[in-house]
Amino acid sequence: MPxxxxxxxxxxxxxxxxxxxxxxxxxxxxxxxAYPRLLEQAAPYGAAVPAALTAALLLVTVAQHxxxxxxxxxxxxxxxxxxxxxxYIPLLVLGEPWLSALxxxxxxxxxxxxxxxxxxAAAAVAASGPLIIVLLPVDNRLGLRVALDTLLVGLVVHGxxxxxxxxxxxxxxxxRAAARAVQRERDRVARDLHDLLGGRLSALALxxxxxxxxxxxxxxxxEARRELAELEEIARxxxxxxxxxxxxxxxxxxxxxxxxxxxxxxxxxxxxxVTGAPVPPGLSGPLGACLxxxxxxxxxxxxxxxxxxxVTRTPGAVRLTIVNDGARPGASGAQGSGLPGLAARAExxxxxxxxxxxxxxxxxxxxxxxx
Length: 371
Known about the structure:
InterPro entries: HATPase_C_sf (IPR036890), Sensor_HK_TwoCompSys (IPR050482), Sig_transdc_His_kin_sub3_dim/P (IPR011712). With about 375 residues, the chain is an alpha+beta fold. Helix content is about 65%, strand content about 10%. It folds into 2 domains: about 10-175, no CATH class; about 250-370, Histidine kinase-like ATPase, C-terminal domain (Heat Shock Protein 90), CATH 3.30.565.10. Helix 3 runs antiparallel to helix 5 (about 100-110) and helix 6 (about 115-135) runs antiparallel to helix 7. The two termini are about 25 Å apart. Residues about 1-10 have low confidence and may be disordered.
């Protein structure tokens, strides 16, 4: 059986959002301490200039680690280039206070670039701070402090991003391990099912075939022959289903189950109205299983004279509806384990299953699965 798909995208989205929030807080602390000096440096240009540049740099910094679907391979590099421009060009206007932004560029380089390129880029960013100090009309002794601040902030940013990625990877691996354990258990059950029932179903089919051959010819035994032939067909179909499960596939198709439902209802004397619609291959098996269980419940747990089976398709979902007019008093959708199991499967696929009386002695089963 194929390994179950692990829905890790939601975890990655949550991790990306949390990382963005933490980086936003670090950014506000780091730039917030230098912001009064930025306002003084940009006094000739107005307070709007440092505010706009700070907001643009914050947006680019956070956007690099925000979750996106689908993941674009060059998005991080483009944002890193934009961050470099927003880090160095404003130095012409804002001067030394804007060097507080170098740490975020260093952290982004470590997070976005592959090794060893990320190490070279980080070293270049760290060294650029003291070099810029030499070119600016400020005390050259500030160069060491700028270099240390850049390294500290950069390592903090890189640590936050790295921790978020490792946590997300660990959660995904844990989910995959759980899915593999579930799949192994399903495989074991399938093998046991085949070993226990395969031989007995095969023997049942042979017994039915032998009983039909032992009947004397004539019209008096024609009905018995037909019943034994149907019994043999049912046994062989069940045997094929068991073998299919053991081989790792669910041998159910909605079209085949619609034909079987029509024949089974007619054989039981129930007037059947069966209406199908094309469905995606991935939903044919689950809907076929729901249809088989629903028709089985009609035959076992109702006094139906009329049953309608309808498959409809909307732009966003496929709906299977089974309605019979023979609901017994006290009937509910919670009896047995068949419908609860199908309801759990529908929920795994993002859909829902509703079953219960809907008045006037009718029982309605509705399964809706998203496309």
